[in-house]
Amino acid sequence: MTITPVIREALPTDIEQLLAIERRVFTDPWTRSQIEFELLKQPVALNLVACMNEDVIGYLLSYLVVDELHLNNLAVDNDFQKQGVAAGLMQEMFNRLEATAVKHCYLEVAVTNSGAIAFYRRWGFDQVAIRKNYYHTGEDALVMVKGL
Ligand SMILES: CC(C)(COP(=O)(O)OP(=O)(O)OC[C@H]1O[C@@H](n2cnc3c(N)ncnc32)[C@H](O)[C@@H]1OP(=O)(O)O)[C@@H](O)C(=O)NCCC(=O)NCCS
């Protein structure tokens, strides 16, 4: 089943809901200060949330540096996964990039996160490198890139 959430830019008032989802879906969640930085202080951010009935059910946090976009974080709350929510966030991100000079999108994903890797491949991202010990758990990350 596919659902059609409202996708909009993230607001400071979304921080508590983002943090709650972050803690539910990741075993090694971002801290409050990491999320606050991206929503409140990141000067070149493209941060989106997906909402159902005004509740945040997923989010995509990214930032632009000249002609590159760095996809920092993408998560969908457990009850709403596999229903096209992340796809909606990605599509909105790519729509917004059309009006920018961005030529490449980069991301890092844990080598063991097979679901996310499958998702990114489906969206045209290719593996270009491995960063050893990227996460503070010691896990390696795949670097994936998509040209626009
Ligand atoms: C990865 C994630 C964001 C995908 O969100 P989603 O809303 O479930 O994804 P969508 O429904 O839009 O897309 C589903 C497609 O992605 C791929 N996919 C998503 N989860 C998958 C899984 N667990 N295993 C295999 N493929 C998966 C498949 O291609 C799937 O298509 P299919 O259902 O036709 O097979 C979500 O699973 C999530 O939040 N995971 C936990 C947080 C996380 O790991 N984030 C990525 C950090 S880099």
List keywords for this structure.
binds coenzyme A, Alpha-Beta Plaits, globular, 7-stranded mixed sheet, alpha+beta, 2 domains, 4 helices, 148 residues, Aminopeptidase
Task: Assign an overall shape.
Answer: globular
Identify every distinct bound molecule in the structure, by name, code or SMILES. Answer: coenzyme A
CATH superfamily of the largest domain: Gcn5-related N-acetyltransferase (GNAT)
Count all strands and give the number.
7
Which segments are poorly predicted (pLDDT under 50) over 5 or more consecutive residues? none
Largest sheet: 7 strands, mixed
Give the CATH architecture of the largest domain: 3-Layer(aba) Sandwich
Q: On the 0-100 scale, what is the average pLDDT?
A: 96
Q: How many domains in all?
A: 2
What CATH first level of the largest domain would be assigned?
Answer: Alpha Beta
Topology pattern, helix = H, strand = E: EHHEEEHEHEE
- What is the rounded distance between the termini? 29 Å
What fold name stands as the CATH topology of the largest domain?
Aminopeptidase
User: Helicity level, as a percent range?
Assistant: 25-40%
Percent range for β-strand residues: 35-45%
* Strand order in the largest sheet: 1-2-3-4-5-7-6
Structure description:
By secondary structure, this protein is of the alpha+beta class. The chain folds into two domains: 1-102, Gcn5-related N-acetyltransferase (GNAT) (Aminopeptidase, 3-Layer(aba) Sandwich); 103-148, Alpha-Beta Plaits. Helices cover 29% and strands 35% of the residues. Strands 1-2-3-4-5-7-6 form a seven-stranded mixed sheet, sandwiched between helices. The chain is globular. The structure holds coenzyme A. Coenzyme A (COA) binds at residues 25-26, 74-76, 81-87, 109, 113, 115-116, 118-119, 122.
